[in-house]
Amino acid sequence: MNKGYIKYPVAYNEITKLPVDISDVTKDIKRYLICPECREHFVTVQNHRTPHFKHKSYSNCTITKESYIHWLTKEVFRYMEEIEIPELFIDDLPEKPRQKFQFQLNKILDSKIPDSFRSEFRKGLKQNLTESRKLSIDKLDIEKEFKTSLGDIRVDVVANSKSERIFIEPYFTNEIDEDKKNKLGILDIPTLSLNLKRFIDYYSQDYSIRTLREYLFSKKSKQWVFLSDIEYEQHVKNYKSYLLEEIERSKDIIVLHKDKLDEISNLKTKRNELMDEIQTISKISLI
């Protein structure tokens, strides 16, 4: 494809080493704006319905939409001071912890909630094991290498706060594969995947550093892909405490349902006794 037809909303300033929005271009910096991949000088197109940068028509640059947004994502992350960490949902649990959790949940509900009220009660329960929160970033590493017994691994973004470290893996088409997940398991560091395709599908090429920063900050861009077994167990334990609190809070309704069940059971017993008595009387009448 002719690279001159592809639009780029952000260029790289070879002097300041910073990304530059097309809307922030001045005459003084035009000559310093280059493609982050091939380092060729971009053509600046400002008098256009959607202002943009582009390669010259004869360019042989091999940059793709995917590699471009990956580059820009890492550049924007370098200067972020905080991000939103998403909730951990029940459906985010790996298969075995999720099955164990559901078994424990069902065991508690079966023992404490009347069958007639169980379905309604379950609908009111929250589906997340943790709440979303903000993480202040004290130090951030880009493309940091780690060694594991299964081989080396490169993590795109490592966010460090005073009390914790979180890995962030942006992806466009291919999510984290099983090989990388196994290596992450050895490192035992909480890991989030970050969906860049969703951002590009929405904005196409008409976005800015600001809109990308907002997306990277938002919890909606991320999903949990790894937590340690200890963390999973702690979150499940916290959920069980929440569940017991909800059962206690609903005890009046639960008692009401149990009373209704007892009443229905008594009525059924009386009905059966009455039917037996009627049958006995009918037999005597026939004699």
Task: Report on the architecture of this protein.
This protein has 287 residues and is of the alpha+beta class. Helices cover 43% and strands 20% of the residues. The protein has helices spanning 65-77, 95-112, 115-123, 178-187, 196-203, 209-217, 229-249, 251-286, and strands spanning 10-13, 18-21, 33-34, 43-45, 52-54, 82-85, 133-136, 139-146, 153-160, 165-171, 191-195, 222-226. The strands form 4 sheets. The chain has a 5-stranded mixed β-sheet with strand order 8-9-10-11-12. It is elongated.
Rounded Rg: 30 Å
Shape type: elongated
The mean pLDDT is: 88
- Measured distance between first and last alpha carbons: 101 Å
Number of strands: 12
- Given helix and strand content, the structural type is alpha+beta
Low-confidence stretches: none
- What proportion of the residues form beta strands (DSSP E)? 15-25%
Determine the number of helices (DSSP H or I, runs of at least 4 residues): 8
Q: Level of helix content?
A: 40-55%
> What's the main sheet like?
5 strands, mixed
The helix-strand sequence is EEEEEHEHHEEEEHEHHEHH
What spatial order of strands do you see in the largest sheet? 8-9-10-11-12
Summarize the structure.
It is built from eight helices and twelve strands. It has 287 residues and is an alpha+beta fold. The longest helix is centred in the last third of the chain and has 36 residues, at 251-286.
Strand-helix topology:
Elements: E1 10-13, E2 18-21, E3 33-34, E4 43-45, E5 52-54, H1 65-77, E6 82-85, H2 95-112, H3 115-123, E7 133-136, E8 139-146, E9 153-160, E10 165-171, H4 178-187, E11 191-195, H5 196-203, H6 209-217, E12 222-226, H7 229-249, H8 251-286
Parallel strand pairs: 10-11
Antiparallel strand pairs: 1-2, 1-3, 4-5, 6-7, 8-9, 9-10, 11-12
Helix pairs in contact: 1-6, 2-7
